[in-house]
Structures are given as structure tokens and as C-alpha cells.
Amino acid sequence: MSTTSPSPYVSAHATPSGPGDARPTALQIISDEGLQNNLTSKVFLVTGGSSGLGLETVRALHATGAHVFMTARDKAKGEKVKEGILSSSNGTGTVDVIQLDQASFASVRAGAEEILAKTDILNVVVFNAGISWPQTRELIEGQESQFCVNYLSPFLLFNLLKHALLKGASPEFASRVVVVSSGAHRMAPVQWDDITFEKGYNTWIAYAQSKIAGTWMANYIDRVFGPQGIHAISLHPGFVWSGAQAHVPQEMIDGWMTPEFQKFFKSQAQGAATSVWAAVSRAIEGQGGKYLEDCEIVGQAKEDAAPQERGYAPFAFDEAQETKLWELSSKLVGLK
């Protein structure tokens, strides 16, 4: 794995000073790439586009002039977000809101069907939607809730849409799959002996499992479908205050409130920058099977890395486990 990338944002991330500092926003990525209304022939899909990082990702991609699909559990909320983006954007593209709840495989299938009824090509899919840290074990579709929502539903959605991604690929712009993972994946790999946590629930390990699963999915997609024109990347967006912290115990939040740790936090617009860079940057055209942080390809984390330090886990790139998970997932979601 390469530990460097031709990112122009290295210096901006060298000395972070908190939300709104010199680190780029998602819209700045579009401006710096010179892509305002210059991707009018492209079709993007962003899951979870009605709030947080997803909203900022949709906002930035709309500025390219592309046709952007965004999924939302609550379609009415999604339509209001769409109206807000269109009223404030100079982008000439369109936004379609697709009702899709990743807590239901039936909803995922219905959402995919609606998307394919509106377009037969996709150029980029950003798997952004997810849940984090429920304090009690809950099963969804027979699986631990975070594993289902954060991983299995995106896995199913990719498989339902892959032919549109294959059709959208070209020698000049390979199709891209962007998986929003998390630095928390370093906490644990997939718990093969107890994926559903029947032996005891730990929400943090379950979250880590769901996020390493996403990275393994991206690696597998790139390895298998890369030669056919679909490249895939996973990433850590950084520390961002959002609804994701709703279930975090107050004592842990208090630990994050120190001045030293607060400087690593990003605004939501800054947190979406790495997803947008992965989706459109010319610097990584034709590349995949990489892990990004701070708009840059990064290498393996050191063994005793602190949460705010960069890098992926030593088990993040493991072909045998990636293949094992892909085969299991196909059975769990009912794919032949």
C-alpha cells in the first residue's frame, strides 16, 4: 500500500485548530478541482443525504452540474433539504430524493428499483448513511443493527446497482464507489465467532465490525470489479459533531471536550471533504483499494496510535477475510 498521495491538502491538515480552520470543505474541493458545472454528464448517488456529512456531500456534488440522487429515510425531510440546496446553489444539475431505509432490505430493493427506473448509468456511489453506538443490542434483518445498516444494506445496494456502475464507466472516468468507514475500524475486525453478539454486546466493537466490513467491501469491489471499470475506496471522514454522538455516554463526550482534542474536530462541511475528494479528484482517477483520511491516501497506523492519529488497522487489507465476508454477506442478504 502506498503511504502517500498527490494531495494538495497536506499542509492544511498539519496543524488543525478546530472546525472552520484551514482544512478544506467539500465545496472547496469542487472549486479547487475546477468542476463547477463541469460534470453535467455524470450521475452520482449519495446515501443518507438529508443531514450531516451526507447533506454536505450532496451539496458539493450538485455544484458540479451532475445529476445527484440522494437517499433519505424520511422523504419529506429529504425534499426540504433538496429545496435548500437548489435555492442556494449555482449548480445546474438535478437532485432526486429516493426514500430508502437501510434498516430494511425490502426498502433497499425498492430504492434501487426506483433509481434504476430513472437512470441506467451511475458514475459514483457514496455510501455515507449509517448508525452508531446504540446502547442495547438490536437485531435488524436477523443481524446486529450496526452491521446491517452500516454494511449489509450498502452491500446489497451495490450489488443491485453494479450494472449501472459498469455501464457508466469509461476510460476517462472510471466508476467510483466511496465507502465512508471510520478510524474506529481499528478497534476490532469482524467477530467471526459471534457476528450477532449473542455472547455479549459491546456497541463499540459492533460499530468497529461494521466499519471494517465496509473497508473490506471496498477492497473486494476494487479487486474484482476494478478491471471492469469500477474502483472503490474507503475512508475516515475525521471527527465531526453530528447526530452520530446521540448515544455516546456523557463521560466520553466530556473526554472529547478538552482543548487539545477539540482542535482535531471538523465542521460537517470539512468532514465531507474527503468523501468528495474521493468521488471527483483527478489525482486518484483509476485508483482503488486505498484508505483515505484528510483528502489523502494514508498507510497503516502505528501499533499504539491514538484515535486522532491517522492510518488503517493491520487487518484492513486481507483478501481471504474480504472474500469470506463477501460470500457470507451474499447469503445474508439473499443474493444468488
Question: Key features?
Answer:
single chain; about 325 residues; alpha/beta; Rossmann fold; 8-stranded mixed β-sheet; two-stranded antiparallel ribbon; 11 helices; about 40% helix; oxidoreductase; oxidoreductase activity; Short-chain dehydrogenase; NAD(P)-bd_dom_sf; SDR_fam
Condensed summary:
The protein is α/β, with parallel strands linked by helices and 336 residues long.
Describe the model.
The chain is of the alpha/beta class. It has a single domain (11-332), classed as NAD(P)-binding Rossmann-like Domain (Rossmann fold, 3-Layer(aba) Sandwich). 39% of the residues lie in helices and 14% in strands. It is built from eleven helices and twelve strands. The chain has helices at residues 26-32, 52-62, 75-88, 105-118, 145-168, 203-225, 250-256, 259-262, 268-271, 273-280, 319-332, and strands spanning 43-46, 67-72, 95-99, 124-127, 139-140, 143-144, 175-180, 230-236, 239-240, 265-266, 290-293, 296-297. An eight-stranded mixed beta sheet has the order 3-2-1-4-7-8-11-12, with helices on both faces. Helix 1 packs parallel to helix 10, helix 4 (105-118) packs parallel to helix 5 and helix 6 packs across helix 11 (319-332). The radius of gyration is 18 Å and the shape is globular.
